[in-house]
Amino acid sequence: MVARLRADPATQSIPILAASALPVTDGCAALRRAGFSGCLPKSLEPDVLIPALESFLPAHLRAGGTPAMPAPSAAAPTPATAPAGTANTGRARVLLLDAAPENAGLVAAILAHSGYSVRSASNPMDAGALMDGHVYDVVLCELGLLEAGRLSFLADALEMAPGLPVLVIRPDDEDDLGALGAGRRRSVLSHPIDPQQLVAAIDGLLGQPAL
Prior knowledge:
By secondary structure, the protein is of the alpha/beta class. The chain has 7 helices and 7 strands, in the order αβαβαβαβαβαββα.
């Protein structure tokens, strides 16, 4: 069915998402090769599902989005677009260190939906590139599974962003994060994440009143 939709000019550009209760261990890579735009793990509460779905839509089709701008004329310059994975907004600038590929970018989708400017890195090389010339207000570490390799990535990446407050999302309340984020202002949440809880934690780290 996906192959037929992709082959039809009328439907080939429509995002197609896969939803499954089975764990995804490759960050949706196999599904994307099959033609899917992304994947969502089941089961999802509406306040998580809706922003995840909206992350695949243009801004004017999202809840509360602004009307679509008319197409520019041939003589008008085309405005520059933001880099992929970036939301240009008036809220805090978040560096997301994503060590949870099985969560299919849900935290990034929630952050973008909530109005934050988000840049995501899933490996040390990406993290280093995102630190070059960019300014952030807070670092968010998402830890999908408590594994040494994931903790090492987060710890190494945090060294590139000294002094910034850190919000860590861990798999379970009982998981020991060790010294991750020690020595700076830090807050810890556990999965499953409530979007309002996530926003409140970020604003609390920045000393901002909740909206």
